[in-house]
Amino acid sequence: MSDKAKGWVLVVIQFTLLGITLLSAAYEFKYAGRTLMPVVHYIGVTLILIGALLFTFILISFGQFMTPNPVPRDNSVLKTTGIYNLVRHPMYFTVLVLLLGVVLYFQAFYSFIWLVIAFLFLVYKSKREEEFLSKKFPDYPNYTYRTKRIIPFIY
């Protein structure tokens, strides 16, 4: 199996985890029967809006080079400025912000486990992606030393 094909397998797993997290949160919201806390609900809405804005900004920033496949395209360029100066994988951060927002919006606290699983998977996927990026861009290892992987200023 080629690297590109392996990359698409990771993409399918990623989107499956995202779907499971969303469905789990909605299902839990519908059937848990807990009293909603307005503050938590509004924090969730805020995170969803922030995530949507970040997603749009990153999509515009990276443009035609954006792909969910961890194998970089032949014509891709190494981006290290803007948001990429804060975090190497801003789209993964954005996905986590959106998922956290959804879990809080629905107050689906059992669904946090899916959020944790999604985070661990994105760490694994980012490591694979960085192997490909290191092969394509000789300066990539230097970039990894000064920039956090997924969560700005933390990890």
Structural key phrases:
155 residues, 0% strand
The secondary structure category is mainly alpha
Number of helices: 5
Summarize the biggest pleated sheet.
none
Instruction: Determine the fraction of residues in helical runs and give it as a percent range.
Output: 55-70%
Radius of gyration: 17 Å
Query: For the terminal residues, how far apart are their CA atoms?
Result: 31 Å
Low-confidence stretches: none
Percent of residues in beta strands? Answer: under 5%
| Secondary-structure element pattern, one letter each | HHHHH
Q: How many independent structural domains?
A: 1
Number of strands: 0
What form results from the Cα inertia axes?
globular
Mean pLDDT: 92
Task: Write a brief caption for the model.
The longest helix has 29 residues, at 3-31. The protein has 155 residues and is mostly helical.
Plain-language structure description:
By secondary structure, this protein is mostly helical. It has one domain (3-67, 77-146). It has helices at residues 3-31, 38-62, 90-106, 112-136, 140-146. Helix 1 packs parallel to helix 3, helix 1 (3-31) runs antiparallel to helix 4 (112-136) and helix 2 (38-62) runs antiparallel to helix 3 (90-106).
